[in-house]
């Protein structure tokens, strides 16, 4: 345990103080090889994993949990906070400059540790990173940067739809519709740019190749006996086109001399991958996209309650592993085809189960002030659909409440799926928000009011079942061990629910 952590108990933690406290606990500046963040997590690349003090990190005020995926070491800080802490963390790294060697360490120590850390990281990646997990994470890395634009455009689309239905401000609704639709019309370009960047190609070439998917002139091209339609294949076609372009670019750069590389590599990349996209990939991706839409509709209209139960119950483990972002291409494909994704509202029920479980823990563990403080700080985010603070700060460290939260999510998903079987589908016009934040984005065949009522009923079901399952079954036995393992104090026997044990565990 590092005893010189800059933050002291009782001192309000600011983004800078949190960053200053984190830096020595992850091994100091010389141990940090990369810094990034998503909506809730600070993602660090580390040279030597063994230099991290996990227990001290978990106990640090403001830290809701830590996660490791083989690619990065992730500190869960919560929405809003993570961006400010990341900025302060990067500023500290920039100010430090030379890292540990400036603090008296031998000149060769950092190099030795870096080599050792690289070996450990490679060994860990080989052991833990399966090809499927690695592929899903790379897909997530392509689409996660697009989430802010998807959220913003989706909310603007919701406002435009509401004004249209109410027949208010008819002069401004076309402008709002244009603002909300422009990004979706060109999303293929952004997907292509991020795909090339993720797989080591030139981002602008990836965007250029993917742009052909949405170019209106493709309507004059015939593939497999049928004329292509602009946007055919959607984000799937754009991803495949940019991925092919990246491989063509790498092939050219490895074989062409420098004098020809500047001219021929970009030309061959656009020409070869563009033609393959037009005559093969757009058609194939269009068939896959159509199959996804057909399968989603069939799944909900035929086995809606069962499908909702399974999807709602299994979504929290995906969030825990950080793999839920890999579903973004499916959601985006459904939005492109049908105007909304019917899967997101069902998956959002997992967050409702989490909120219900956290409320039950709050009620049952009345004497655990530290845990109750964590719940109070994380619950607003949970109500808005950001479940990671509650996962890593509450339910997962306690163990069984994580499982009962999944039960609540399954119940809410079954509720929404049942209504889909009865003909009232619930969809979302954009991805990113869930929980209460999803209401402005709801859409369905029965109108907004009916759709909102079904979605609200699903949330209420998730809250109630998650609360009840956790209150009656989620906290018996193992509570003291789980809280202790999460870095908190061991509850006194009087603090634990149920009869007083004969001896401490």
Descriptive account of the structure:
- With 505 residues, the protein is mainly alpha-helical.
- The chain has 3 domains: 15-129, 2-Layer Sandwich (Gyrase A, domain 2); 141-293, no CATH class; 339-495, no CATH class.
- Helices cover 63% and strands 6% of the residues.
- Strands 1-2-4-3 form a 4-stranded antiparallel beta sheet, sandwiched between helices. It has a two-stranded antiparallel ribbon with strand order 5-6.
- β3 (65-68) and β4 form a beta hairpin.
- α1 (15-25) crosses α3 and α5 packs across α8.
- The longest helix has 64 residues, at 258-321.
Low-confidence stretches: 1-11, 98-117, 480-505
Number of strands: 8
Shape: globular
Number of helices: 19
What is the CA-atom radius of gyration, in angstroms?
Answer: 25 Å
Helical content (DSSP H or I, runs of 4+): 55-70%
Overview features:
Gyrase A, domain 2; disordered N terminus; 19 helices; disordered C terminus; mainly alpha; 505 residues
What's this, in brief?
By secondary structure, the protein is mainly α.
Question: How does the SSE layout of this entry go?
Answer:
Blueprint: H1 15-25, E1 32-37, E2 41-46, H2 54-59, E3 65-68, E4 73-76, H3 81-96, H4 109-128, H5 131-143, H6 147-166, H7 173-185, H8 187-198, H9 203-211, E5 222-223, E6 226-227, H10 234-255, H11 258-321, H12 328-338, H13 343-347, H14 349-364, H15 369-383, H16 388-398, H17 400-421, E7 427-428, E8 442-443, H18 448-473, H19 479-485
Antiparallel strand pairs: 1-2, 2-4, 3-4, 5-6, 7-8
Helix pairs in contact: 1-3, 5-8, 6-7, 8-9, 8-10, 9-10, 9-11, 10-11, 11-12, 11-14, 11-17, 14-15, 14-16, 14-17, 14-18, 15-16, 16-17, 17-18
């Amino acid at each position: 345990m590092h005893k010189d952590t800059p933050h002291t108990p009782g001192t309000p933690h600011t983004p800078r103080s949190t960053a200053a406290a984190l830096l020595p606990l992850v091994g100091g500046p010389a141990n940090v090889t990369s810094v990034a963040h998503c909506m809730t997590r600070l993602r660090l690349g580390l040279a030597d994993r063994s230099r991290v003090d996990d227990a001290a990190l978990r106990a640090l005020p403001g830290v809701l949990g830590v996660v490791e995926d083989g690619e990065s070491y992730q500190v869960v800080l919560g929405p809003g906070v993570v961006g400010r802490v990341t900025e302060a963390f990067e500023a500290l790294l920039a100010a430090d400059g030379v890292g540990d060697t400036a603090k008296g360490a031998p000149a060769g120590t950092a190099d030795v540790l870096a080599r050792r850390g690289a070996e450990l990281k490679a060994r860990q990646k080989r052991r833990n990173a399966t090809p499927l997990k690695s592929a899903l994470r790379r897909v997530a890395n392509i689409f996660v940067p697009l989430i802010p634009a998807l959220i913003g455009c989706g909310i603007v689309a919701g406002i435009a739809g509401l004004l249209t239905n109410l027949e208010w401000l008819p002069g401004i609704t076309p402008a709002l519709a244009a603002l909300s639709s422009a990004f979706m019309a060109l999303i293929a370009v952004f997907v292509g740019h991020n795909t090339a960047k993720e797989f080591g190609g030139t981002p602008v070439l990836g965007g250029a190749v993917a742009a052909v998917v949405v170019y209106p002139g493709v309507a004059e091209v015939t593939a497999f006996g049928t004329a292509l339609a602009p946007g055919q294949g959607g984000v799937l076609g754009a991803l495949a086109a940019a991925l092919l372009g990246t491989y063509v670019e790498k092939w050219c750069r490895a074989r062409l001399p420098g004098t020809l590389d500047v001219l021929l590599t970009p030309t061959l990349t656009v020409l070869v991958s563009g033609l393959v996209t037009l005559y093969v990939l757009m058609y194939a991706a269009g068939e896959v996209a159509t199959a996804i839409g057909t399968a989603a509709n069939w799944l909900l209209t035929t086995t809606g309650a069962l499908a909702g139960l399974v999807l709602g119950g299994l979504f929290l483990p995906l969030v825990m592993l950080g793999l839920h972002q890999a579903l973004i291409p499916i959601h985006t494909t459904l939005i492109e085809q049908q105007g909304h994704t019917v899967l997101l509202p069902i998956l959002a029920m997992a967050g409702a189960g989490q909120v219900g479980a956290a409320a039950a823990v709050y009620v049952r563990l009345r004497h655990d002030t530290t845990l109750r403080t964590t719940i109070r700080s994380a619950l607003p985010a949970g109500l808005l659909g950001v479940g990671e603070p509650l996962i890593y700060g509450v339910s997962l460290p306690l163990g069984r409440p994580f499982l009962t939260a999944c039960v609540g999510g399954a119940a809410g998903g079954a509720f929404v799926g049942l209504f889909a079987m009865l003909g009232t589908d619930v969809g979302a016009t954009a991805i990113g928000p869930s929980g209460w934040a999803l209401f402005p984005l709801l859409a369905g065949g029965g109108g907004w009011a009916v759709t909102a009522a079904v979605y609200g009923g699903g949330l209420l079901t998730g809250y109630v079942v998650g609360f009840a399952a956790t209150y009656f079954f989620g906290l018996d036995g193992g509570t003291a061990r789980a809280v202790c393992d999460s870095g908190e104090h061991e509850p006194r026997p009087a603090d634990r629910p149920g009869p007083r044990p004969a001896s401490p565990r």
